[in-house]
Task: inverse folding
């Protein structure tokens, strides 16, 4: 049988061989923590946030004297390490968070290695005229404080590090408490790669036990000049109210519209491929569908051929009561509805067992026709469950899809060959990412043109962040000279 040697496959095999040679077992043996991996102390991980900031500040001072070419060598080195250890981080991420799928997480790390921009993203501007020459250059902020999520932990740490280092910064992370080992493994990987390329021993740093208190130290520390937050609404709000320059990459609830001009077979496959990628953890992934009623049966039948199971209304309602739970705030006593962490990013089979439904591993997504008000439409569940609403026409589709997006302005997708419909929805929904006739992940460069990021900054407007998002503009003026015409 011929093997398709994709880069992901090669990296997977290399990682497995390396694990065996080094005597390292798979991540599943749990010989890892926030500070060590198989007995090896992680580099750049500290007891306190103050120590982490001090180390990243020293790293930043060291790279200030390095040339852009030397910085680019560091970025290339991070790419190589990320590719080689993609599978280890994918396994570790799934073992620690119990979310997502190893093969998809491996692919996400390869994507980060291949498509995160480096120093080429930092372009200076020159303006000449009668008065001489003015340069505008993109300078580093200094030390960046970054908050990273549990859903793409090591992917975000490495992608952020590449962009922030390419821009000339040092970085301190306060990773999600549910993904400390995976995030800190990535911090260690970046430091190993930086040092191997002639950089300082520590350029990115983190803490062994990140908490809201360590995040608070980061927000207030004078050495932190820029905050970058990738996470849910609570943490984005906290960072944006810090009083510092901040980039916020927050929650989404991406709707998909399918109209009656679409290639329905392809739309069904694309939607399910996007929705089930890493068990729906990506914030850009399809979360609810609005389909024209005259093609709805065909779309559903296409989905059923692509690894879906259809829930009855009773099953959907029973599941909705499990995937969203009520929690009482111990301080205020207020009752809040929250997505059940035990369901986020889990395999469809595992989630369905919670309502006594047994399906095989070939079932990757549960679909259900539900009313617009249903939890499956309104809530960003981040699990392979997809609510479907039938609509009469494009007006109703756009109105409901925009409402379901809740003004996050994050991501939305559409399957159609009608350019008027495509343009109308794109204009109305105002999202950072809008994917036409493809799975949602095309929007972050996976099978689509353009660079990748795991920090999509809708609220603060940087969009698909890259190195230049982490720079500050500086102007240098020379009068009368340096003009050659
Ligand atoms: P989360 O909001 O639960 O946690 C994110 C990070 O914030 C963690 O480090 C956590 O410890 C910390 N945190 C949470 N509340 C905090 C507070 N008040 N102060 C300081 N730190 C706090 O996020 P998660 O569950 O890991 O990620 C899922 C959410 O993140 C989803 O809503 C998803 O859409 C969003 N997300 C967005 C992007 C994007 O690029 N826009 C990328 C990934 C995830």
Result:
């Amino acid at each position: 049988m011929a093997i398709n040697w994709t880069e992901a496959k090669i990296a997977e095999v290399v990682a497995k061989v390396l694990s065996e040679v080094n005597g390292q077992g798979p991540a599943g043996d749990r010989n890892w923590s926030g500070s060590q991996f198989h007995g090896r102390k992680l580099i750049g991980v500290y007891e306190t946030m103050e120590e982490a900031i001090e180390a990243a500040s020293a790293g930043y001072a060291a790279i200030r004297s390095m040339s852009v070419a030397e910085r680019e060598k560091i970025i290339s080195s991070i790419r190589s390490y990320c590719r080689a250890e993609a599978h280890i981080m994918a396994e570790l991420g799934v073992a620690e968070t119990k979310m997502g799928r190893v093969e998809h997480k491996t692919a996400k790390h390869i994507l980060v290695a291949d498509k995160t921009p480096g120093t080429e993203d930092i372009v200076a501007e020159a303006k000449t005229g009668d008065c001489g020459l003015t340069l505008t250059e993109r300078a580093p902020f200094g030390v960046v404080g970054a908050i990273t999520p549990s859903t793409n932990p090591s992917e975000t740490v490495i992608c952020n590090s590449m962009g922030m280092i390419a821009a000339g910064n040092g970085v301190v992370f306060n990773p999600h408490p549910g993904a400390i080992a995976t995030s800190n493994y990535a911090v260690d990987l970046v430091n190993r790669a930086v040092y191997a390329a002639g950089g300082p021993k520590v350029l990115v740093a983190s803490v062994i036990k990140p908490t809201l208190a360590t995040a608070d130290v980061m927000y207030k520390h004078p050495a932190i000049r820029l905050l970058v937050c990738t996470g849910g609404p609570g943490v984005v709000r906290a960072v944006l109210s810090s009083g510092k320059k901040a980039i916020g990459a927050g929650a989404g609830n991406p709707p998909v519209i399918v109209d009656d001009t679409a290639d329905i077979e392809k739309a069904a496959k694309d939607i399910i491929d996007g929705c089930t990628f890493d068990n729906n953890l990506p914030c850009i992934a399809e979360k609810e569908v609005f389909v024209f009623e005259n093609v709805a049966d065909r779309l559903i039948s296409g989905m059923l051929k692509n690894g879906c199971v259809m829930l009855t209304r009773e099953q959907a309602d029973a599941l909705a009561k499990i995937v969203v739970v009520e929690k009482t705030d111990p301080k205020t006593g207020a009752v809040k509805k929250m997505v059940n962490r035990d369901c986020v990013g889990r395999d469809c089979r595992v989630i369905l067992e919670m309502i006594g439904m047994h399906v095989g591993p070939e079932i990757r997504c549960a679909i259900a026709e539900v009313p617009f008000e249903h939890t499956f439409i309104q809530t960003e569940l981040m699990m392979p469950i997809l609510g479907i609403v039938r609509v009469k026409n494009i007006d109703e589709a756009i109105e409901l899809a925009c409402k379901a997006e809740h003004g996050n302005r994050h991501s939305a997708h559409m399957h159609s060959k009608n350019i008027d419909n495509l343009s109308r929805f794109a204009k109305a929904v105002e999202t950072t990412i809008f994917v036409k006739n493809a799975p949602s992940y095309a929007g972050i460069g996976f099978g689509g043109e353009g660079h990748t990021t795991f920090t999509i900054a809708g609220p603060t407007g940087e969009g698909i962040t890259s190195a230049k998002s982490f720079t500050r503009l500086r102007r240098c003026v020379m009068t009368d000279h340096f003009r050659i015409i």
Notes: Residues 147-152, 174-177, 212, 215, 230-232, 234-235, 238, 249-252, 283, 380, 454-456 surround nicotinamide-adenine-dinucleotide (CB under 6 Å).
